[in-house]
Amino acid sequence: MRARWTAVAAVLLGGLLAGCQVAVDGSAGLSAADRQTAHQRAAQQAAVDAALQALEQAPALQYDTSVKDASGKPADLAFRVTRGGDGLGALPLEGHTVHLAEPAGQLYLSADADYWKSHGLEENSAQFGTGWVQTVGSELPMDPAARLAPPKLADGLRKSLAAQNQGGPPQKQRLADGTEVYELGGGLGALQVTTAEPHRVVSFAPALLDPRGGPKLGAGFRVRPLSVAELKQFHTDFDATVGGLGQPFDGLAQASVTVLNDKLDCKDYVGSCQTTVDVENNVVGSRPGSKPTVHITLTVEISADTLGAQTCSTQGDAAADSTISMSCSVNFSLPNRTASYQVLAKPTAVGEVRAPLDVNAVKAKLATTFAALGG
């Protein structure tokens, strides 16, 4: 009885061992190729993390891109921005070269008349094309302060990469200067990060930040942090630009003006006629809390029988939704005889809404900002 029991136990044990053998045979580990790919992807991820961290901590960045000018020749554009969003330079917006200044949270643009026409501002395009226009970032395809400041850019690129499926081995490219880079991004465009330490972001496609608005800024930007000397020059250039903004147009508001109380006064025996009018303005579309002014141009055509017609003009500034008095005069050459003349005055006025700008206050804020950044 004991021998039979031992034999049966041996058979059962053999069956159990056979079952374990089947389970082992059914499980497979990573292949050598898979392990190599995983190692390469881990190295790429470490490089991207380090590059984005360095980008995030930069005091200021410079973006460079190339476009074609009106004659088809390549032209280089540069835009600089601090970590707080104070930006200065030029960007290719929707095929137009647009100069931007964004100090202390206020955005100013300078572009030709065609740019403003493309935005439906046909009536104001000629005026806007002659100077700086204040607007808001939401009017642009992508707000530079909200998307291109160092912390904002790093955050936007992280989110874009996290939403993409980066499968397979890392893609590498060698740039014209010999620098080897990882290339990520997929269909939205490339993000290039150096493979060698210290890892840094070399370039990126704006579409990575915003698939809809980003492509309107072109295919890609080269990006780099500013040195201390470049940061100081950035501050100097910013002060000069702010000092030259003048009286910027308000790109969001419109003014209607009405001429009231036309009064004509002609001096006997002198030939001088002066027209005095009240000009009332009404402003719509201004930002809450802003105090725009209306720059008014008064033009008066004064005519007299047999003496012909002459035109005079004058300009003045009025607070929004107010009335001011304006005058201009002409001089007729009177013949050497006694006569009387019927004189007629035709005044017309136009108004442009101008954004208030305290240059000294803006420069003081910039000084504080750059001092904290080391520039």
**N-end to C-end Cα span:** 98 Å
Q: Assign a percent range to the helix content.
A: 25-40%
Please describe the biggest sheet, giving its number of strands, its sense, and whether it closes into a barrel. 12 strands, mixed
Instruction: Please give the order of strands in the largest beta sheet.
Output: 7-8-9-10-11-1-2-3-4-5-6-12
Helices and strands, in order, run as: HHEEEEEHHEHHEEEEEHEEEEEEEH
Q: What's the structural blueprint in terms of helices and strands?
A:
Layout: H1 2-25, H2 32-57, E1 60-68, E2 74-82, E3 87-93, E4 96-102, E5 107-110, H3 113-118, H4 125-128, E6 133-135, H5 144-147, H6 150-162, E7 172-174, E8 180-184, E9 191-194, E10 201-204, E11 221-225, H7 228-243, E12 249-250, E13 254-266, E14 272-284, E15 293-304, E16 308-319, E17 323-331, E18 343-354, H8 359-373
Parallel strand pairs: 6-12
Antiparallel strand pairs: 1-2, 1-11, 2-3, 3-4, 4-5, 5-6, 7-8, 8-9, 9-10, 10-11, 13-14, 14-17, 15-16, 15-18
Helix pairs in contact: 2-6, 7-8
Explain what the structure shows.
The protein is 29% helix and 35% strand. The chain is of the alpha+beta class. The chain has a twelve-stranded mixed β-sheet with strand order 7-8-9-10-11-1-2-3-4-5-6-12. It has a three-stranded antiparallel β-sheet with strand order 13-14-17, with no helix packed on it. A three-stranded antiparallel β-sheet has the order 16-15-18, with no helix packed on it. The radius of gyration is 35 Å and the shape is elongated. Residues 1-23 form the signal peptide. Keywords: Signal. This is Lipoprotein.
